[in-house]
Amino acid sequence: MRIDQSEIWGDASRLADFELRLKRKIADWIKNDYDISLDPEHEMLLTTGNTPGSFMTIMSLLDKNSRIFIPEPGYSLYRACALTAGAEIETYTVSEITDFQPNIENIRSRMGQNTRAIVVNYPHNPTSKGVDLKTYDRLSEFASKNNIIVIADSVYLLHGGDGFSHPMYLQSIHGKATGIELITFSFLFNLPAFKIGVALGHRDFISPLRKFRMTFNQIPSVFDMEIADKLLDNREEVQNFFSQRFAENRKLVYDSLDKLGWEYLPSSYAPFVWIKLPHRRRVALTFCRMLLKRTGVIMLPGSFFGEEGEGYIRLALGQSSEKIEEAFKRIENYSKIYKVPKKMKSKRRAGGGQD
Fold first, then answer.
1. Cβ 51 vs Cβ 77: under 8 Å
2. pLDDT band at 11 (very low <50, low <70, confident <90, very high)
3. 352: closest CA among 55, 182, 97?
4. In this structure, are residues 158 and 234 in contact, taking their beta carbons and an 8 Å threshold?
5. Which of 40, 131, 189, 349 is most buried, taking the most CB atoms under 10 A from its CB?
6. In 10 A of CB 167, how many CB atoms?
7. pLDDT digit string, tens, across residues 215-237
8. What are residue 264's DSSP bridge partners?
9. Statement: 5-233 belongs to CATH 3.40.640.10
10. Nearest to residue 40, comparing CAs of 229, 199, 215?
11. Model confidence over 265-300: pLDDT tens digits?
């Protein structure tokens, strides 16, 4: 893939033309793959990545008199953004108990008149679980009846492996009327330093976000937009490559965890494995510190994602298979510390929700 730099290092007046061209291509992709019709000019806004996009969305839609529901375990960014906006934060549990879906009845019972928004994140970080379109339909009906905005963080939309394809929230019955969906190219195409994303939704939700972006001049560069344009042209090839890589790494991790006797949550939607702490271990942070000290292997404690994440650790699948194999060899060398006794070994944890 080559980019002609002579075409992209022009004056600033060309920025709007590049942006509109890219948004039209994104609209075509969304229409072809998800059958969602979007107006590139009024129902779409480019952002400078996941963090700025989430921040601008929450800041532009909330104030200190509003209440927002966020998932737990969940990405800490949502809480940080809501706190900055001065909003009142409520959490809802995403776990086996709730079948990894928002418990709408529980949320309804705690709403209050000032509830403005609910954040959903599917495929879910950290559990890697997904939901089906029926779940989104129920959520959109609830949002429509209660005048709530659904902020759908869908950054891992294209990470489904093993033939799985995850729906978008905007596909739901009242999706466009009730939601704003966030996507970022850095996650879609596994380019961590690539700072460009897109917000999709009704013009009434995009309009305040656009004003916020203009105020803080958070506009992607022409260079980044041109790269994104080329990536969209090759998205199937790139997606297939990483889906296969993640599937292979996932199998390698599952086999290694089975050998150790560790319980985990099987799922194929996001590039993570959600692992239950080995027998007798109770504090995820303490365990991860010990793991790092004894083996040099880094895993993220589930408590990083909130209180509901305690008792679990998250392993990412982005490393090479060689590094993953080396990591588990080091852990196996300390089997007296980490390995579950044979009589305590159990089958893979049967997870609820969508695999």
1. yes
2. low
3. 97
4. no
5. 131
6. 21
7. 888 889 888 999 999 999 998 89
8. 275
9. yes
10. 199
11. 998 899 999 999 987 778 999 999 999 999 999 999
